Structure formats: structure tokens, C-alpha cells
Amino acid sequence: MTSVFSWVAVRGRSPQAVLGDLGLIDTGVAHSAGSSRLAGEALPDGWYVVVDYDVDPEGYISDTQTLGQLSQQADVVACYQSSYGPDSAASQWMNGRQVWIVTHSCDSGAIRDHLAYEGNLPEVFTEILDDARADYTASDAEQCLYQVPVGLAAEITGFREDDILDLTELVWAD
């Protein structure tokens, strides 16, 4: 099944503040597959995640203004996943500035492994990349490295969209 979605996780701000900045309201209704475009969840380690299942290309990852605003006095991780390419991206923001970004794009054939990264990457990045390359075969190379940005974002926040716990539906505040 093909899917495209984006998510942003914020730690250091209340869920209400995050939702307010994004112009969203939590309905309190449990989210199920296909039930709503937007969903949110408070994670055990203090992160609050908002998932958008109907994104324009790259969703939150390309919305630098919103990421900068959300990261004022907070830690923010954004992630984009598209099984069409497959393409994926993740970035971390703190104090209004991007700390690092990792992208995997099958359209970037000139870049080794279709993977680009810059900034002050966390130590776990090397381990995730090495593990992906160890799993590398000619037939699944794109899929293996697609998981690098996704795995990095998951390692930092503890959130993986395929491990959904208790998402609730979100709606636009008007």
C-alpha cells in the first residue's frame, strides 16, 4: 500500500501550546486508519506528536517557518515519509534553528545512496546508517536507506507511525 504522511514532534511545550501554534484542536476522538487527516498523541518521554496524513510534498519538513516557531525554547523533530519514491526526510530544530537534516530521495541519483545529510547529527545517526548499509543489497538498497531518516526520527522521539498507540483526531480551529 502506498502512503504519504508527515509528522512533527515537540518536547518542552505543552500539547495545548503546540496545537495552538498549529491552529488545531484535539477532538478527543480516537483516531483509526482513514478516520481523519490529522491526529495527535502525547508520548511517554514528554514529546507531543502531530501526524498529517494528507500532505503536500514533504509536509512539515519543508515548513521552516512553523518549525522555527515551534522550536522556540523547545526541541522539535519533523519527519516525512512517502512510499511513492520511496522518499523520506527528518530534521531536528532547537531555539528557532535547524540542527540537522537527513533526506533520502530516489531522484537524487548523483548523491551516494540517494542520502543527503548536514548539520550537527546525533551520534546514533552513524549507527543507524551503518546498520542500513549492512542490510544493503542491490534489490532493496532504496528501501534500506529510506529507513535512515525515519529510524533517526524514531530513535530520538520514540514515535513510529506503524507503532501507533493512542492517537486522537485533530481538526483545524477555523
Would you summarize the structure shown here?
By secondary structure, the protein is of the alpha+beta class. It contains four helices and nine strands; from the N terminus they run βαβββαββββααβ.
Number of helices: 4
Q: What is the strand tally?
A: 9
Report the biggest beta sheet as strand number plus sense, adding barrel if it closes. Answer: 9 strands, antiparallel
Biggest sheet: strand arrangement: 2-9-3-4-1-5-6-7-8
Structure characteristics:
174 residues, alpha+beta, 9-stranded antiparallel sheet, 25% helix, 34% strand
Question: How are the SSEs ordered, and which strands pair?
Answer:
Elements lengths: L3 E8 L3 H8 L1 E7 L7 E5 L4 E6 L11 H7 L4 E8 L4 E8 L2 E8 L10 E5 L4 H11 L6 H17 L10 E5 L2
Antiparallel strand pairs: 1-4, 1-5, 2-9, 3-4, 3-9, 5-6, 6-7, 7-8
Q: What do these coordinates show?
A:
The model has no long low-confidence stretch (mean pLDDT 86). A hairpin with a 4-residue loop joins strand 3 and strand 4. Helix 3 runs antiparallel to helix 4. It contains 4 helices and 9 strands, in the order E-H-E-E-E-H-E-E-E-E-H-H-E. It has 174 residues and is of the alpha+beta class. The chain has helices spanning 15-22, 64-70, 124-134, 141-157, and strands spanning 4-11, 24-30, 38-42, 47-52, 75-82, 87-94, 97-104, 115-119, 168-172. Helix content is 25%, strand content 34%. The chain has a 9-stranded antiparallel sheet, sandwiched between helices. The longest helix is centred in the last third of the chain and has 17 residues, at 141-157.
